[in-house]
Design a protein that fits this description.
Length: about 550
Amino acid sequence: MNNSEWAESYFPIYTADSIQSLYSTSTMPIHKIHENLTVLLAVSSGQGTLHLDDHIYELADGMVILIPAKSDVVIQGNQMHPLHIYTLSISTQEQKRSRPVEAMVRSSVLAAGTYIEFYEPTIAAQLEQIYMHRLPGNEVRHMRNQILFHQVLMSLLERMEARYIASEQPSMERSIAFMENHFSEKITTEGLSEIAGVSRSHYSILFKQLTGFSPNEYLSRLRVHRAKELLIGGSASLREIALKVGYKDEFYFSRRFKQQTGESPSSFTRRRPFQRVAVWFAPYASHLMLLGLEPAVVISESSEYVSTEGVSPPQTIRFIHSDSSSEQIKSALLDAHIELIIAANQHLDMNGLSSERLRSIAPIVEIAWMELGWKEHLRFIAQATQRVEQAEQWLADFEREEQQAREAIQTSQIVNETLTILVIKPDTLQIYGVRNVGYVMYQSLGLRPPAKIAQEIQRFGDQFHSVSIQLSELQDYEGTRMLVLVFPDEKGSKAHSEMIFNSEYWKGLEAVKRNRIYDLEQEEWIPYNPVSIRLQLGRAVSLWTGIQ
């Protein structure tokens, strides 16, 4: 039985709510569209115009347009070329499956759009097929309709992905990167256009197309967001901050800060905490939720989240996979109106990003992952979000729980023995130190690691994660008892562990001979955040007080 605190989030199911055929004639040249759902419009033939807000778009044969939900659209046909269109209303619904009541549904990219999107004409023919067979005569035709509908959605999503990738323009990117790295210096549009190799006027147009801002607006955002980072840090005066971000004095800096944010620097310092925070690393989301703040965006390899007693289940988190393109991530953060980004620099580096590239969106606070332990992670995140008192109270309560746990296991044999934590991965063997499951065993409970691991803990403290070993070295790290965690491969198989368990090196261990091996589940013992560590402490007490 898996008692892990981690819950999965789910994408919704797409359904075709309705499909209509609209034809403009001389007696009915105008059609109005107002749907609570996203609408996909395809022009089968003819010409006309689409009116949305203050914009007018020309319609022509084969055109495909994705219209955001709740848009007020007016379609006007051309009398010389009568307009025939199909409209497909796309709805989403939760998956009906056996899962926790609080399991969160992830936002739909198609349904969450706020801007009109244009697509290639190949989709128009597919919508025509869906309309022609909208009343299927048998289940085979119904299934074909479902496949065709999802092929349409796949085409839309793939084109969205391709658009982000195609938007990369190396010459413009070089000039933007220069601004991001030199914003504290004197920067002119002329100088930036020279870097990009285009004229000044054309540069401003291209810049806004790429970033959504004019060069001056972008520069101002970089400076003000860096100033916010320094204000959050609290160690610099206004004059020092002004000079560091490119303003001549604190008075001019304060004016520009207020122009962009609507408040003075001192008011900003008093007003925090932030409400719309993004985190680039799943464990930091758990820290925020413990502090009572649900992150607006989580950028991570996983869409799992902490779900346990004492932590409110998330309601509106948007998950973005860390493999998404940088432009896709930046666009999502802007759409979410993020006020603060919390990230681990190692994970930014792994994705080819940096605080400089994200600073135009919001201030960014970098919190090192491997260099700090989970308590320091919590303290830094609490300090950045003005929740220090909550964090310190939680830590004080947890330290009392640790003391009680140490007292609870005093009658167990484990307190007089040595404990090895072996992790078997598909391609390596590791002996764990004081992170993950090792924190609770060696730090919270004070159990003794093997001598070689104790030496590494002495040298590196909280930074000592693990050491990779050869199978032949296993005996060098042997404890009188062993915890074993087998990580599955990408297909979910743990067959790679059989080679270890069938080896003479394994069979020769005293802990194996005396049946002092304890198999643990990865999901229950590996997460490294305060919520999970507290749960691991309770599991550890149950484990050691139950042994003979």
